[in-house]
Specification:
This protein is mostly helical and 515 residues long. The protein has 21 helices and no strands. The chain has helices at 8-42, 46-85, 90-118, 120-127, 134-144, 147-163, 168-171, 173-192, 195-210, 213-219, 238-259, 266-277, 279-300, 304-341, 348-362, 365-375, 387-410, 412-437, 443-470, 476-497, 502-514. 55% of the residues are buried.
């Protein structure tokens, strides 16, 4: 029997995935702790609502500059520079890009951060006009306005490092960010209240830059000459990406705008539900994060078939991870929320409200992951592409209409359902547009694989429901752990029987790496 050895690129991707997975999950674990402490110290009331309205600024900044512009635009740009090096001094080519792009970007970020600080009262009123304590939200917004600059710098450093196949330091930004939040929130929550969390957001954003600087200086370095007049990339190239990410983030704006008119604590329940439900997304999207530089190089080199295979593999694997997670979250939502959040000021009523919303949110997770995976190829080339922004705009219209109609009768549940419907609409449009414009995806085979995964997830959810009934009187932690194992095993077995090996392949790769 002939043994096929993995290529150096495959080894690099697997190693990068494992490094990114371990470091990012460590940061996510601290994110768990952060949310747990936020619930413990402050519960879910008007004060946490005010902080979460202010948190809209860093959430939007992260989406626009870290996940959006710096990732979708700068990674392909840096990747092309590495390809031009062709085995030579890649750092030299990267430094040329840095010298041509960083000055312009920093100036824009400073201006935007200052404008956010000055316009904080107007922003708070625009985002949540029915907020009970707008003054508190304004204070928190001004503290978090610095993230527009610091997140941009952190995203820029991450893009340069990832394009050079350095993934450890970029993965650590979540770890550094949450350390900053937890430090100030833990030390000052008694004296500053929820303002301590906003100050922690600002501190954590500085840590995101600092944690990457040594690696950036070692692998890339600073240019000897800052070529501010060189037009390696035009700021206009950021426009379609910025519009796309802003429109996507606007789903949160709708959530907080409508939630501010409901009972106090509704915005907090929506936030807690969304944060817990989106935890599995982080693991799934790590795959896209690691493979995007490779995908960008394939597309830039005109290797259409290799790009198609890379993207189809990513779609199948992320879909498998998200569907099994959705089944688990829908069945065990009350126990998960109880274990994670029901401590201190977070009461049983908050658990019930958050768990109900989380079940609805979970149904839209696949749409969120597909949107991220499918939008990236549109930005792998040098030309500007407006199609993702238009697709997200259509999804946003669906979200706004459904939420506005349903909020009066169904409250927060309508907002969560509208989120899922809108993002799923955008995902379908991106899938169709990508097939017609960019990559010749094999839609029939992808659709068949998706149906098989849905079948496996449905069976796993049914098995989890039976286990939850059988363990009804057990402690919540035991129910969560045993239920998770059962759902995962049943899903993997049914996926294998249905002829889809993505779930078991992921497990096998992880086991192989640990060995």
């Amino acid at each position: 029997m002939t043994t096929i050895k993995p290529s150096p690129l495959q080894k690099t991707l697997v190693q990068a995935t494992m490094i990114t997975l371990v470091v990012t999950l460590s940061g996510s674990l601290l994110g768990f702790v952060r949310d747990l402490f936020l619930a413990r110290f402050f519960g879910a009331d008007g004060g946490t609502d005010a902080f979460l309205v202010a948190w809209t600024v860093p959430e939007t900044a992260f989406a626009v500059v870290v996940e959006g512009g710096m990732s979708l635009l700068m990674i392909p740009l840096f990747s092309r520079a590495v390809a031009e090096a062709d085995g030579g001094d890649a750092g030299l080519f990267l430094r040329r890009v840095v010298g041509a792009t960083m000055p312009r970007i920093v100036v824009v970020l400073v201006v935007l951060a200052g404008a956010t600080f000055l316009c904080a009262p107007w922003l708070v009123h625009l985002i949540a006009p029915g907020l009970a304590d707008p003054a508190l939200a304004v204070t928190c917004t001004r503290l978090t306005s610095i993230t527009v600059l610091t997140f941009g710098l952190a995203g820029y450093l991450s893009a340069a490092l990832r394009a050079n196949h350095v993934f450890g330091a970029p993965a650590a930004i979540h770890l550094a960010y949450n350390i900053g939040i937890l430090t100030l929130m833990g030390a000052l929550h008694g004296s500053l209240g929820v303002v301590s969390a906003a100050a922690g957001v600002a501190l954590g954003s500085f840590f995101m830059v600092l944690v990457q600087l040594p690696s950036f200086l070692r692998h890339v370095g600073l240019p000897r000459r800052w070529r501010t007049g060189a037009a390696t990339v035009s700021l206009a190239a950021f426009l379609p990406i910025t519009i796309y990410t802003l429109v996507r983030q606007a789903q949160v704006f709708i959530e907080r705008f409508l939630g501010s008119s409901l009972a106090e604590g509704t915005i907090s329940h929506l936030n807690y539900a969304q944060k817990v439900a989106q935890i599995p997304m982080l693991v799934a999207l790590l795959i896209c994060t690691v493979t995007f530089p490779t995908l960008a190089r394939r597309m830039a080199a005109g290797e259409a078939d290799e790009a198609r295979k890379r993207l189809e593999a990513d779609l199948r694997t992320t879909a498998a991870l998200i569907l099994v997670a959705t089944a688990y979250l829908v069945v065990f939502a009350p126990d998960i929320v109880h274990v994670l959040l029901e401590h201190g000021e977070f009461a049983a009523a908050d658990t019930a409200a958050t768990a109900g919303i989380m079940r609805v949110y979970a149904l839209g997770l696949l749409g969120h992951v597909l949107v991220t995976a499918l939008s990236r190829p549109f930005y792998a080339g040098e030309e500007r592409n407006w199609y993702p922004a238009m697709a997200m705009g259509a999804g946003l219209v669906v979200t706004g209409v459904v939420a506005a109609i349903g909020v009066r009768s169904s409250g927060a549940y309508a907002i969560a359902a509208a989120n899922g419907l809108g993002i799923s609409t955008a995902a379908v449009l991106l899938l169709l547009g990508l097939r017609d414009r960019m990559v010749a995806l094999a839609l029939p085979s992808l659709g068949l694989a998706g149906l098989r995964l849905v079948f496996a997830a449905g069976g796993a959810g049914g098995a989890g429901w039976l286990v939850s009934r059988w363990l009804g009187s057990w402690p919540a932690l035991a129910v969560v752990l045993i239920g998770g194992v059962v759902v995962l095993i049943v899903f993997a077995g049914l996926a294998r029987l249905a002829g889809v090996d993505e779930a078991t392949t992921v497990v096998a790769k992880l086991k192989g790496r640990f060995r």
